[in-house]
Design a protein that fits this description.
This protein is α+β, with helices and mostly antiparallel strands. The protein contains 13 helices and 12 strands. It has 3 domains: 167 residues, Jelly Rolls, CATH 2.60.120; 49 residues, Arc Repressor Mutant, subunit A (Orthogonal Bundle); 63 residues, Homeodomain-like (Arc Repressor Mutant, subunit A, Orthogonal Bundle). Helix 3 runs antiparallel to helix 4 and helix 9 crosses helix 10.
Length: 352
């Protein structure tokens, strides 16, 4: 079967080393302070290969981690309580038990540890994982915004994350972009990235929509109602009024006065796009207009940033898909036409 994972560095997040040790007690203590207290056991025969390496970079409501133990280890944290932990094996495998589910994880199967269910794991020799730790309260709040109702019971995911399915595969691609942004110091950590909350919400929202959970039947119910035209109008006005600002989908939902799920259905019905896609297109249109009438001092990066884009590679790719040329070409044409229109270049000038 074809490998479903995007490419990651040999050691992701190497610029953010938290610690490295061959001491079991030190590893148990430091990993426990980052995540939660747990039992860590290593078979006697595996002790010579034991070497923990942990890279860690924090955001506002989630963190990115790369963790390896070098040798076979048994990990028993019991209840995680305050966070969900998504685990993506990059090398090797593990046996995961979360609640009543037990399964093997590897290159095509990740895991989501639910904080309200007891967890026990055995990581095999050489197992390395990319971990996403998401605060339980932040994810629960986002789901309540999606549903427009309070959660009466804990959000529980199917702990087995099938990375060959389209939804989880797309989520993994989004995670790869977040890791890349962290590694290039454009997001997470001390980057001061003004869209930090936005990308964290995007990652969490995509996870909820990609992975079966205790709320999936509510999100996919045919009885779910589309937002009223008034709500759609309010949402559109909010998008255009805040086009260059780091607003989140929960901000849009509250401004519209309805659940995010209703907005999603309403936008899909009215415009055949999601609210996120509508906002991206609105930002693209604003950038296109700005590029056509740019001043000599303005650059593609400056205009893209002003219109709410921060990842230049993704902006350039999406722009070309929509307008048939790279943004730099539009900028050159716009500046040349503005130059001529201002009467700063005559026919005689062009002959020399």
């Amino acid at each position: 079967m074809e490998n479903s994972q995007p490419e990651f560095r040999r050691e992701p997040l190497a610029a953010f080393p938290l610690f490295g040790t061959r001491e079991v007690d030190v590893a148990r203590d430091v990993v426990g302070r980052t995540f939660c207290p747990h039992r860590l056991e290593i078979p006697q025969h595996a002790l010579p290969r034991f070497e923990t390496r942990h890279n860690h970079v924090a955001g506002e409501s989630l963190s990115l981690n790369h963790l390896s133990y070098g040798a076979e280890v048994e990990i028993d944290p019991g209840l995680l309580e305050h966070f969900y932990l998504v685990q993506i094996p990059l090398e090797g495998g593990a046996h995961i038990t979360n609640g009543g589910r037990s399964f093997c994880a590897g290159r095509q199967v990740g895991s989501i540890l639910n904080p309200s269910l007891p967890t026990r794991m055995v990581w095999g020799d050489g197992c390395r994982k990319l971990l996403v730790q998401i605060r339980r309260d932040a994810l629960s709040d986002l789901v309540e915004v999606m549903l427009g109702a309070r959660l009466e019971t804990p959000l529980v995911f199917d702990p087995r994350l099938d990375l060959t399915r389209p939804g989880p595969r797309a989520w993994l691609g989004l995670l790869a972009r977040c890791v890349q942004a962290a590694e290039t110091r454009r997001a997470f950590g001390a980057s001061g990235y003004r869209f930090q909350r936005v990308i964290e919400e995007e990652l969490a929202l995509a996870l909820v929509q990609a992975q079966p959970s205790s709320v999936t039947h509510f999100l996919e119910s045919p009885c779910a109602r589309a937002a009223h035209a008034t709500h759609i109008r309010k949402a559109r006005s909010f998008i255009h009024d805040h086009i260059a600002e780091p607003f989140r989908m929960r901000d849009l939902s509250r401004a519209a006065g309805c659940s995010l799920r209703s907005l999603q259905i309403g936008f899909q019905t009215a415009f055949q796009v999601t609210p996120q896609q509508y906002a991206i297109r609105a930002r693209l249109d604003r950038a296109h207009a700005r590029l056509q009438f740019a001043t000599p001092a303005e650059s593609v990066a400056c205009i893209a940033h002003d219109c709410g884009f921060t990842h230049m590679g993704r902006f350039a790719q999406t722009y070309q898909e929509v307008y048939g040329q790279p943004p730099s070409a539009t900028l050159r044409t716009g500046k040349a036409e503005s130059f001529d229109a201002a009467g700063l270049r005559s026919d005689s000038d062009t002959q020399h």
